[in-house]
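The records we work with from here on pair a chain with its fold. Here is one such record, which you should read through line by line:
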Amino acid sequence: MIDYNDKKIAIYGFGREGKAALNFLKEKGYKSTINIINDLPLDKEEILKIYHDINFYFENNISQGLLASDIVIKSPGISLYKKEIIKAKEKGTEFTSPFNLWHEAIKIANPTVKIIGITGTKGKSTTSSLINTILCGLGYNSILVGNIGIPALEMIKECKNADFIVAEFSSYQASDVNFSPDIGVLLNLFPEHIDWHLTHDNYYQDKMHLFANRIKGQKLIINPNDALSNKSLSDVLYFENKYGLTLKDIALRGEHNLLNISASLKVIEELGLDIEKAKDIAKKFKGLEHRLQILGIKNNITFVNDSISTTPETAISAIKSFNDYDNITLIAGGYDRKQDYKILADFINHSNVDTVITINQTGKIIADILRDNTQNINIIQSTNLYLAFDLACNNVKENGVILFSPASPSYDSYKNFIERGEHFIKLFEEL
């Protein structure tokens, strides 16, 4: 554990994670100098009025704030590859994360709890939620934390009496941890997040850093068919669809969800729990809001909200999930994270998608690649979801699907994928 007393502590990033870290330190009664460092412009007068006993470093003074601190608690949204951070590390500043603070507190308060950590480019939210649902359904006190919208540091009270903690890790969170889960799951690796990690290789390494501190008895479960996972990791267990489930047996749509269920059941198997009861719970699991969420049918058209889709691969999985329909009108596009959309275009060219409406930053990129790589596809370039929804309704064919699967993050227009998905739901409800 880090000794925070008599140290100059900085909290870098003052969103929800940063505020949770500050509250944690105050509740623990640490008698330390606390600095707040924030890249983004805030309402400074209001902030300084509320936190009058804290030193603030804004925008142009980031480097100064880092160098003036002994320990920096860095929020996950801030890239560890920033020049200011590299320079501060060279000067001896120590960096940690809110997740590390949470883990230290939990291991003191609840030393026997089993932590199950899930990461991967796609499927981690569904798999984390499913594992937690199964454990609760089996009668255990299981708590879901991590990359779910609520900082782990706000969940310490709930975790104190838990039998299991299921933690979903983004690549940002995984890159900073100084511990590994008791059972880790790596679902897959695809190129993503190059804006934060700078290179795809960094992204893969940062993702796998979640398993870098494994100790004796800790297990890692990976997909035997995922090339990048197998290339990079050893001493692993594998999840496979060996539980006799087919798409007809489960409430979730899509072949990829058989893999998510298989990974979840492998965790249950490794815990030595009732696999047959777990299978029954998994069969009934309907998934997450904003993930292949069928909103309903209007005018013989099925509307699907898949706002959680932030990569070309997740959009491909979404399209596959509706291969029993004659035609799909796809709305895609969002924040530009330098992903390769050619694989999406190649897939669309041999799918039941007949109209693609693109929006936001990646809209032009996706539209241009589609025009170069597809045939007989109606490609419409729009600017925002409001207009795209109207275009989709006017272009979709009878008995078809309007699928909102952006294949890109939301940050250019929305706070997060939830806000983006709620906008799509609102448009559907107003139709």
Observations:
- The longest strand covers residues 33-38.
- The chain has 18 helices and 17 strands.
- Residues 140 and 227 are 35 Å apart (CA to CA).
